[in-house]
Amino acid sequence: MCGIVGYIGNKTAAPILINGLKKLEYRGYDSAGVAILGNDNLKVLKYKGRLSNLEEKVCELTPEGNIGIGHTRWATHGEPNDLNSHPHMSKSGNIAVVHNGIIENYLEIKEFLESKGYEFISETDSEVVGHLVEYNYKGDLVKAVIDCLNEIEGSYALGVICTDCPDMFVAARKDSPLIVGLGDGENYIASDIPAILEYTRDVYILDDKEIVSLTGDKVTVFNNYGIEIQKDVFKVTWDVASAEKSGYEHFMMKEMCEEPKAVRDTINPRIKDGNIVLDNIKLTDEDVKNIDKIYIVACGTAYHAGVVAKYIIEKTAKIPVEVDVASEFRYRDPLVTDRHLVIIISQSGETLDTLFALRESKKKGARVLSIVNVVGSSISRDSDDVLYTWAGPEIAVASTKAYNTQLAALYLVTLELAKKKGLLETEQYKKAVEELSKISDAIEDVLENKEVIQKFAAQHCNAKSIFFIGRGLDYALSMEGSLKLKEISYIHSEAYAGGELKHGTIALIEEGTLVICPMTQDSLMDKMISNIKEVKARGATVMAIAKESNKHVYKAADVVVTIPDVDSFIAPIVAVTPLQLFAYYMALEKGCDVDKPRNLAKSVTVE
Ligand code: AGP
């Protein structure tokens, strides 16, 4: 939910921190701040609003010092203002802390510290950390941080600097991501790899409850008992450009244009001699035959991918599937057992609702397969099996290519489950695998024909409420189309099953109401044409997303956006792209901040 960075080395820390925070602003942008340690004094600059406010002040004040920590915030406890911004100082002003996560027992810690004479100036939970580290500090900063963390319940990624330790600083993580960048005579911490990628490709991906001490020449990792542990170096293979906009106006457009490659990269390495090879997933034929039920658990866009998966798994692998949003699943005491497979879907791999749902599933004995985009993320590390989507960094808050690749991964899993259950004849399997290879080119076609969508958006950007209706896989797709539109254009919309509209909600359709209809399912075409006629009879304007060969739709819809003739089974992976483009152009027409929509952040690491 927030972004943190840290630096120690022989360079001035301030510009490195600011540069790193720029790469993390997508994680939250309500406020930003830095703490710099130089000539034994600790300077803290922190301001409400965008990072540019802080950058301006840093340029003006040029704080000296070669140790520093920085933070860009997505507010949880305490509104966005200067006082609630990070870094937070300890009582003496000798310790500064940046924190990403939530201290769930902060009130009792606060009461304890107040009874010891500590005073609090912010409304945040994070402020307790600096005071508690100071309370525990007896000359060993690592030990003070460990003692502090042993009192804390909740999630954290921390950077801690102290005037007593002018040649080192400490960091730690639990449930919130943190990596260590290993440089030459300098070292870094960051919430995510892009923040330090231009300085080093060698990183440690910290695990939960690990604490790290950094000097310019040495990085030492400890467990929460203070025992030193060895970490493997993870070499980052991304190029720097892949984490930048590469000339596009917005990350979102860049990432939509990356969809063909992202889907290809997710599918192709897993097709060997016409057979699907799901990396090192250890699900045997016996395991699959013993799966009584599959739960799919995720949030937001990832959840919508799960709804698509329900349809295709039940239809192809004949295994009952229950799809749930993680925040509901976790608290409804789900009837999960060791006879169940739980599929967890998450782009960031850090969504706390989803991470805790995963842990709940494992506690109940289920096997967990996660579909994740960020390598080494918390969800990937807690799963029994991981199938990575190779979408590359997704920076725009609105998830696009990650969804397409999640579907691609889910199709691979579905076909493998069906095959292991002996439900797919060789020819059927071969054809299905071949169909997957057509997806990237089909998305390429859609991306080359954006004009119809762009024009429709320009005509209708003042719409106050928009309906997305579909049947079967197209209904699942409508959910994602509706979310995309809402989160970046701030236009209210809702997704509705086409056949359900007449049971009440059609009362809202009136002259000029906008209705978007993905209609890629051949077997449901006539029913969808009827639904279009129903809403048009009440004055609606309809844009349909249909295959090129569908000639009937032109007689029904006002505007038709076509996709290439792919098999209905895989159509959602292609048909979602026009819906993403529609949301993008509507947001542009309304002058919204496409990549950083209001109230949102890219990775929701709070409950
Ligand atoms: C998608 O556009 C949203 N930004 C949001 O719903 C997101 O999908 C959700 O928070 C889940 O994130 P995850 O995939 O990283 O777990």
- Multimeric status of the protein: single chain
- Poorly predicted tracts of residues: none
Work out the radius of gyration. Answer: 25 Å
Structure classification: alpha/beta
Estimated share of beta-strand residues: 15-25%
C-alpha termini separation: 10 Å
Spell out which ligands are present.
Answer: 2-deoxy-2-amino glucitol-6-phosphate
The CATH architecture designation of the largest domain is 4-Layer Sandwich
Report the average pLDDT across residues: 93
Gross morphology: globular
Structural domain count: 3
Structure description:
There is one protein chain. The mean pLDDT is 93. 35% of the residues lie in helices and 22% in strands. It has three domains: 235 residues, Glutamine Phosphoribosylpyrophosphate, subunit 1, domain 1, CATH 3.60.20.10; 196 residues, Rossmann fold (3-Layer(aba) Sandwich); 153 residues, Rossmann fold. Strands 3-2-4-1-10-9-11-15 form an eight-stranded antiparallel sheet, with helices on one face. A seven-stranded antiparallel sheet has the order 5-6-7-8-12-13-14, covered by helices on one side. A five-stranded parallel sheet has the order 19-18-20-21-22, with helices on both faces. The termini are close together. It has 20 helices and 27 strands. The chain has 607 residues and is α/β, with parallel strands linked by helices. 2-deoxy-2-amino glucitol-6-phosphate binds next to α9.
